[in-house]
Amino acid sequence: MKVLAAGDIHGDRSLIKELSERAEKENVDLVVLCGDLIESEENPMGIVGAFRQRVLLIPGNHDSIPVIDFLAEFYDHAKNIHGYGYRKGDVGFFGSSSVNLGLWQLSEKEIFDMLKNSFTYVKDCKTKILVSHVHPAQSKMTQVSGFEGSFGLRKAINTFQPDIVFCSHVHEAEGIEEIIGKTKVINVGRKGKIIEF
Question: How far is CA 152 from CA 91, 116, 157, in A?
């Protein structure tokens, strides 16, 4: 399976066009969008529809949950995994925005509890991928950005030990990869990252 993960689109339709063309060229099976798809309540149309592949979504600190729910309902090939999971073969994706700031923030307890719930959907998958908008606390991304990140997410990484975490949020940390315990954490950023399993 080949996955294209990206975040921090912020309504940039030209970037979406580039990503969708890349997904086609690279024969990607699945697209994961790690939040901040739009700027607040702007028109979200054209963000998900550009992709032909199944698209997994979570909200960021610029997206409301109702907007992400709308996109998942409007497009047959989209699924909101904020608090849920998705399985494709022996690979499981589970997620939470992990947003602990802004209008739609969650407490660290809510973030952990949401990830705990979503993990139940994929706990017996061979490969487990946690999808977040915000990076984990006490990470390299924290050092680069100065933004602490989420302790609820960090606790979930330590507890559930996913194979990979996809996140975005801090633009200056785009492309940073690090290992926390047994988990590889990747800031996929706006340019996106292709991972093959």
Answer: 23, 10, 9
In whole angstroms, what separates CA 149 from the centre of its chain? Answer: 14
62's tokens: 């610029």
Q: What is the domain partition of the chain in residue ranges?
A: 2-196
Q: What pTM does this model have?
A: 0.93
Q: Which CATH architecture has domain 2-196?
A: 4-Layer Sandwich (3.60)
Strand partners, 185: 165, 178
For residues 98, 164, 54, 132, the Cα torsion angle rounded to the nearest 10 degrees is: 10
Reduced to 3 states (helix: H, G, I; strand: E, B; else coil), residue 112 is: helix
Q: pLDDT tens across 75-128, in order? A: 999 999 999 999 999 999 999 987 776 666 789 999 999 999 999 999 999 999
